[in-house]
Amino acid sequence: MLDRLRLAIVAIGLLSTRLAPAVAADWQADDWHLVPATNSAEKRPAPIRNIARTAAGTLLGTRSAGSSIELWSSVNNGVDWSHVSNVAESSSVVYGDPTLTVLDNGDVLAAYREEDPALGWSVRVSRSVDNGQSWTFGGTIHDWTGSASEFVGAPQFNVLSDGTLQSYYDSEFAAPGGNQYIAVKDGAWNADANVWEWSNERVVNTAAIGGAGVRDGLATIVNLGPDADGVGDRLMVVTEAVAVTGGRGYNLVRAFEVENGGATQADWNNLLDSRIIYQSPLTDPAGHRYNAYAPYALRVGNGPVIVAFSTDEVLHEQGLPADLSSAPPDARHSEIKLIQTTNNFESWSAPITLWGVDHPEFSGSATAGDIFNYQIGLFELSPNDLLATLDLFGGKQIVLRPSLGGDTADFNESGAVDGGDFLIWQRGYGLAGQTSTATGDATGEGLVDGADLTKWAMQFGATAAAAQTAAVPELPSGTLAVLAAITAAAVPTGRPCSASRP
Question: Which of 94, 101, 449, 459 pairs with 21 at a CA distance of 20 to 30 A?
Answer without folding.
Answer: 449
